[in-house]
Amino acid sequence: MKKQLVLAALLATAPFVASAEGLSYSYVEGGYTRVDVDTGVAGFDPELDGGYIRGSVELGENFTVFGHYSKTQDDVRVNGIPGTFDTDFESAEIGFGYHADISDRADFIAELSYLRQEISVENSSGEGKGGKLNLGIRGEMTDNLEGWVKAGYIDGGDFDGNFVGTLGGQYKFNQTWGIVAEVEFVEDTTQYMIGARASF
Question: Which of 25, 91, 126, 133 has the fewest CB atoms within 10 Å, i.e. is most exposed?
């Protein structure tokens, strides 16, 4: 009888345990992305469209390794100049993350990564490589809706030092599938993403 009572109690509390552990740090994700670039050149502000893929794997209880790649393109017109300019923007990132509970539904998150970006216009291109540090909070607002906010800094290598802000969220259909939307602001560049995420 005692064993049956213990088993019944465990089964009864299982849904509450699942809710408290509803934030998954192991996932793959992909979708559409748009990058708006303010070049500082009058009439030349590319709005680039493309795709992205990213993923994360949890290592132990508090650490993750993650990666991200996106590529966007547009044929850009410049005021006063005939024709268009083929413009491409690529971004790749790989790094390590740390997370710790601050409540039953929210985590403190920290991310340190290596970032590489390249923008090319016709036959000319420029590349930037450096480090990126993000600190933020990720939490569940409901059983199906979560969000995150991060503030960070990009510096080192080819970067002079820029602040970065990120705001995102996920609507979860079930424990595996969800729809993700995110926007990231970095000085003269804004990147929007919307995609599907599979958590495991």
Answer: 126
Hey, where are the domains in the chain? Answer: 24-199
**Cα–Cα nearest to 187, from 157, 163, 160:** 163
Q: What's the topology of domain 24-199? A: Lipocalin (2.40.128)
Whether the predicted pLDDT of 144 surpasses 70: yes
Which residues, including other chains, have CB under 8 Å from residue 148's CB and lie 6 or more apart?
109, 136, 137, 138, 139, 166, 167, 168, 169
CB 133 within 8 A of CB 146: no
C-alpha span between 133 and 147 (Å, rounded): 19
pTM, 2 dp: 0.82
pLDDT-derived band at 159 (thresholds 50, 70, 90) equals confident
Name the one residue in this structure whose structure tokens are 């794997």. Answer: 57
The residues, ordered by sequence, that sit 6+ positions from 94 with a Cβ below 8 Å of its Cβ are 65, 66, 67, 68, 113, 114
Q: Which two tokens stand for residue 200?
A: 């495991």
Higher pLDDT, 34 or 18: 34
What pLDDT does 6 receive? Answer: 40
Give the single-character DSSP code of 102: S
pLDDT tens-place string over residues 73-102 = 998 777 777 778 888 999 999 999 999 999
Please report which helix (H) or strand (E) contains residue 107, including its range.
strand 106-121
What is the spatial distance between Cα 100 and Cα 79, in angstroms, rounded to a whole number? Answer: 50
